Amino acid sequence: MSTLDEVLAANADYAASFGSKGSLALPPARGFAILTCMDARLDPAKYAGLSEGDAHVIRNAGGRASDDAIRSLVISYKLLGTREWFVIHHSNCGMEFFTDDVMRGLLANSLETAALGADGFTDVGAGPGSNEANYIDWLTITDNEQSVTDDVTRIRAHPLVPNTIPIYGYIYDVATGRLVEVADATKAGAPS
Ligand SMILES: [Zn+2]
After folding, report:
1. C-alpha to C-alpha distance for 93 and 158, rounded to whole angstroms
2. pTM for this entry
3. Helix, strand or coil for residue 189?
4. Nearest CA to 121 among 155, 152, 97, 90?
5. What is the 116 CA–ligand 1 centroid distance (Å)?
6. CA 16 / ligand 1 centre spacing (Å)
């Protein structure tokens, strides 16, 4: 069975027992938003106890407070009424395993998937690549707690973010499933 067939079969099962979810309201019922990493090991619905309609989940590589993540958070509050936000990065994040220079070098050589070994990512595919990677800030991570604190601090200071919204900073531990608070981040994200 192809991935496409698997996804469509799973969706058919889901839709068959959709029940009353078709009448859920557009604004999130529990009034909060989570910014977190796209890592396949993280399931925010499970780790934070969400059902359909409960909360906004904004995901990107690293769970970083990029301009686009902030765009979503501002919409989440301004138009859809969320009142509390979480920034949740995680242990063993792939964003710790490369730098802008590494990513730019890899993509300059080849667009194919790189290999991850003990010495980091290396190109194993054919060229050509592209220098377009030089124009992207890949928002890599060197220290987990620092990245959470940096992102909470950036969101807190953003001119479109009201100072009444508490922003909590956490790291999800991929070895245990636990959320561990980053105290400096939550402190930086306190409402004022
Ligand atoms: Zn990650």
Report:
1. 25
2. 0.96
3. coil
4. 97
5. 15
6. 33
